[in-house]
Amino acid sequence: MGHGLVTQTRMITADPQTLFDIVADPAMHPVIDGSGTVRAARPGTLVTEQWDPTRATSQLALRLSGFPARNRRAMRRTLERLEEVVTG
Questions:
Q1: Which residue stretches of 1-88 are H helix?
Q2: Among 43, 40, 29, 42, CA closest to 74
Q3: Between 16-24 and 69-87, two packed helices, what is the crossing angle to 10 degrees?
Q4: Alpha carbon 39 to chain centroid, angstroms
Q5: Report field, pTM of the whole predicted structure over 0.85
Q6: Is 85 in contact with 28 (CB distance < 8 Å)?
Q7: To the nearest 5 percent, what fractions of the chain are helix, strand and coil?
């Protein structure tokens, strides 16, 4: 698990500009979010998704409660939704 960084990768066969346009548009984040926690974009707000457990006081408690696997699944779903939106 390294330093607790959670990463997911997926090959998405699509125009790179289209992918960038979707990811760069905060209004699209609720559409592609795999965790279900991004419900709407706020006008003028900065959207960042990140999970870094390195400062958690109990790494064991995190693992026992289903993290980082829960985050990994949500990130995977986000990438799947991104692919669905891009490829239609």
A1: 16-24, 29-32, 59-64, 69-87
A2: 29
A3: 120
A4: 13
A5: no
A6: yes
A7: 50, 0, 50
CA pair distance 41, 12, nearest whole angstrom: 24
Beta carbons of 7 and 68 less than 8 angstroms apart? no
Structure tokens of 50? 């990140």
Give the residue carrying structure tokens 């939704």: 81
Write down how long the chain is: 88
CA–CA dist 30, 36 (Å, integer): 8
Mean pLDDT in order along the chain per 10 residues (88 residues): 75 93 90 88 64 82 86 85 88
